[in-house]
Design a protein that fits this description.
By secondary structure, this protein is mainly β. It is built from three helices and 25 strands.
Length: 298
């Protein structure tokens, strides 16, 4: 049985629920009983088939890779779909890393409004087969002042630096508000155009800050040059949900499919396919690397 950990904001009716034994996925962000996270097919589908919902962690890479092999310095890695947590999209591209629904998280601290959990990546031969960079992964989650803050810290435990290519996939919704009334706000950044497989083509375009109604617009777009502190938002029906890229997330994906009333502003530590193409930061031995995003409801 999965243990649900619910955090409460003592200053409001906001609550958030996470499941450490299911990959530390966030399953709920509720505002006085109104669910603000897209539930999609629910936690059972995430556990069984890696069908994302809520706020899943995408680790050690977010989005897709363009092939099953990558090289970091002198280390060459071959990914095997179906092994070590590797799963693929409909085109056969490895997607969203290897920690989906992973049960290996240990709760280190817990209170009414805070949850800290750790996963010792370096102790897991199954995970090291696909990402051979030993490290400790730590998530610190806090709910206060109508804001859910998620801080990720990567600490190398071996002699090699750890590539930082991870991300999160928050599915946001405005229940009771028609999609055509959802107002979407995005910051100044740079668009990275993708092909039919969702992989970057190499074509780059400026993306000025924008405010637009979602209506029937479909998004599945990648971006980089996202400034620290940049804010993405969706609002409607008297409620506004902001996703702030506080630090360590210079890339983003915006996802809003035609078939669902959800929108995702995905914080990413590196652009799509960076593990194969380069362009990522690292956590050197002795220097823990932290990244943080927050979701504010007003």
């Amino acid at each position: 049985m999965q243990e649900f950990v619910t955090l409460d904001d003592p200053s409001s009716g906001l609550s958030a629920t996470f499941v450490p034994a299911a990959g530390m996925i966030g399953t709920s962000l509720s505002d006085d009983g109104v669910e603000l996270l897209g539930q999609r097919k629910g936690l059972p589908a995430y556990l069984a088939d890696h069908k994302t919902m809520g706020v899943p962690l995408l680790y050690p890479w977010a989005n897709r890779l363009s092939g099953n092999r990558y090289r970091v310095g002198d280390t060459e890695v071959a990914l095997v779909p179906g092994q070590g947590g590797v799963h693929t999209d409909e085109h056969g591209s490895p997607i969203h890393g290897t920690l989906a629904a992973d049960p290996g998280w240990r709760v280190a601290e817990q209170s009414a409004s805070e949850l800290v959990a750790e996963l010792d990546f370096g102790s897991r031969p199954d995970l090291l087969a696909g990402f051979p960079f030993p490290h400790l992964l730590r998530l610190a989650i806090r709910l206060a002042d109508r804001t859910l803050t998620v801080r990720t810290t990567v600490t190398a435990t071996g002699a090699q630096p750890v590539p930082l290519c991870f991300g999160f996939h928050p599915y946001l919704q405005l229940p009771g508000v028609p999609r055509e009334e959802w107002l979407v706000e995005t910051p100044t950044m740079r668009a990275r155009l993708v092909d039919a497989r969702g992989l970057p083509t190499g074509v780059l375009m400026p993306h000025p800050a924008a405010v637009e109604l979602l209506d029937d617009t479909v998004f599945d777009d990648g971006f980089d040059e996202v400034a620290a502190g940049a804010v993405f938002a969706v609002s409607g029906g008297g409620r506004r949900i902001e996703v702030r890229f506080d630090q360590g997330f210079p890339a983003a994906q915006i996802y809003a499919p035609a078939t669902e009333d959800v929108i995702c502003f995905e914080p990413m530590a590196a652009p799509t396919d960076a593990l194969r193409r380069g362009g990522y930061a690292v956590a050197p031995p002795g220097e823990p690397a932290a990244a943080q995003f927050s979701i504010r409801v007003s």
